[in-house]
Design a protein that fits this description.
This protein is 73% helix and 0% strand. The chain has 314 residues and is mainly alpha-helical. The chain crosses the membrane at residues 20-48, 68-89, 110-132, 172-191, 211-241, 288-305.
Length: 314
């Protein structure tokens, strides 16, 4: 009797094509955001009343309850569904949480130090991208769209300012927890975990998958005038995850970026620092060039350490 060669059992969801996976994930994410946003607005009505409910829908930041209402909307209507969508997809649709969520912590801890250095030294490069982005304009035929995007971004900015009116250290720590940690975990599981895996399998090219995911990540935030720097961040996060094989370096980098902005905003509000966090003309051309060189060297070293190679060899 001839025995057939043993075949490794494949996850049940492996028969779903990458394109169909993308459709399922997209529809599922939108549906969860819609449902939980409705629940969040209902909770705003229950806890804060009809006036705050209507003010939240119109982003009337003059309402004294607006900050707490927007936090509720952010956590329940955005952060929670962005975490649930990739988890449910990986666990129950694909039945392969290991490959899609990449929640293993088996990576070199020293990589976290390299990520910290990269995020610190990337500030001048990010400033360049912000300034270039601000000069981008759509054709005259799309002026209406540009005005709409600008209006949406201004509303989002007002909402962020209302949420991040931090009077105490506890307010700042709460912002670090939600905007820094919880948002980083949710968005990294969705984008660098599930979506990047899908895009790499769809394109059969890891670099294309990382860049497409970064573009979608930036587009998701619907902030046209910070589009380029967010794409760059998405690319960084993507390579951190791909080279290490774990989602947590991406979460760490995302957390550092978000938490730093919250802390700087708090220090500026409390007049502890004079540097306006919205000022994008801090560095000079020499700083830009040095920043780029240092980032490339650090990324090269990160890649080699993550792959178990010598720091001096490619």
């Amino acid at each position: 009797m001839i025995k057939e060669p043993y075949q490794q059992p494949q996850p049940q969801g492996s028969q779903i094509t990458p394109f169909l996976q993308f459709i399922i994930l997209s529809v599922g994410t939108v549906a969860l955001v819609f449902v939980l946003s409705l629940i969040a607005t209902g909770l705003i009505w229950v806890f804060f009343g009809e006036k705050t409910f209507t003010d939240a829908l119109s982003f009337n930041t003059q309402n004294p309850n607006m900050g707490r209402a927007l936090w509720l909307l952010q956590i329940v209507g955005t952060t929670l569904p962005l975490f649930l969508a990739p988890w449910l997809f990986a666990k129950f649709i694909m039945k392969d949480a290991h490959s899609y969520l990449k929640a293993d912590v088996k990576f070199q801890p020293v990589l976290l130090i390299f990520i910290l250095a990269i995020m610190v030294f990337s500030s001048p490069v990010m400033e360049v991208l912000v300034n270039v982005n601000e000069k981008l304009v759509l054709p005259d035929s799309m002026k209406a769209l540009e005005n709409l995007l600008r209006s949406m971004e201004e509303q989002a900015q007002k909402a962020t300012e209302a949420m991040l009116q931090m009077k105490t250290v506890w307010d700042m720590l709460f912002g670090v927890l939600v905007v820094g940690l919880l948002t980083a975990i949710a968005e990294e599981f969705l984008f660098r975990g599930v979506l990047q895996t899908i895009m790499i399998r769809l394109t059969k090219n890891p670099h294309a998958g990382i860049w497409i995911t970064a573009i979608l990540f930036s587009a998701f935030h619907m902030e046209f005038f910070t589009f380029l720097p967010r794409v760059a961040l998405g690319v960084f996060f993507g390579y951190f995850v791909m080279w290490s094989g774990s989602i947590w370096p991406g979460v760490w980098a995302h957390f550092l970026n978000n938490a730093t902005q919250v802390v700087i905003m708090y220090l500026y509000q409390q007049k502890k620092i004079s540097l306006n966090p919205d000022d994008q003309h801090v560095f000079n051309y020499q700083s830009y060039a040095l920043s780029l060189i240092i980032i490339l060297i650090l990324l090269f070293m990160y890649r080699n350490i993550a792959k178990g190679k010598s720091l001096l060899l490619s």
